[in-house]
């Protein structure tokens, strides 16, 4: 690439190579085989760009071989999941509403899923307390809520609307705190939104809450048994 004359082929190769590097950084943090499948589209684009390179010929042959492997990979991966779906008789069912309900704390199916994610050691009322907290906050204040607990799930209902940078807190736990606070500050200045953080009492949320405290001001707290909630207001207000 250093010696190549500027051309559309060279430009395509540079862009797709950088995109593949960027996508690969996700796999470094979440190195599960399934995530290779999730980012494989970037490698397909890169290999297609490599295939357009005329010389050396061996490079094109290798790119074609890797493309063939990537085409086969999605067909062969995750058969255990499909086996479970077949066993449940749900292979031919398309139920997007049921999937969405599984991510809602206030839906019975979602409550059951959240309780399972919390583990056997969690009190049986935990998911109910989370649902009560979510419902109470949204009914009384009509403001969005983010939940910090082992499930780290985004509420699928309207109460789960984005109000801060930590929309989907599981995405930020591995980032250093100064970077998280920089992101929180930028989004708080842009949205200027008030919101709630609903926290499971035995969940280690101290670091994330310290980030919120650095950018937002605590307005009030509410108790919901195994959960408690904090209302955060931007410091500029």
Q: What are its keywords?
A:
single chain, 237 residues, alpha+beta, four-stranded mixed sheet, 4 strands, 11% strand
Descriptive notes:
This protein is α+β, with helices and mostly antiparallel strands. The chain has two domains: 73 residues, no CATH class; 137 residues, no CATH class. Helices cover 54% and strands 11% of the residues. It is built from nine helices and four strands; from the N terminus they run H-H-H-H-H-H-H-E-H-E-H-E-E. It has a four-stranded mixed sheet with strand order 1-2-4-3. Strand 1, helix 8 and strand 2 form a beta-alpha-beta unit. Helix 2 runs antiparallel to helix 3 and helix 6 crosses helix 7.
Describe the secondary-structure layout:
Blueprint: H1 8-29, H2 33-51, H3 57-76, H4 79-87, H5 96-101, H6 108-118, H7 126-141, E1 145-148, H8 177-191, E2 195-200, H9 206-215, E3 216-224, E4 227-234
Parallel strand pairs: 1-2
Antiparallel strand pairs: 2-4, 3-4
Would you summarize the structure shown here?
The chain is α+β, with helices and mostly antiparallel strands. Helices cover 54% and strands 11% of the residues. It is built from nine helices and four strands; from the N terminus they run αααααααβαβαββ.
Percent strand: 5-15%
Unreliable residue stretches:
none
Cα-to-Cα separation, first versus last residue: 52 Å
H/E series, N to C? HHHHHHHEHEHEE
Structural class: alpha+beta
* SS summary, helix count: 9
Q: How many independent structural domains?
A: 2
Task: Categorize the overall geometry.
Answer: globular
Mean pLDDT: 87
Strand order of the main beta sheet, please?
1-2-4-3
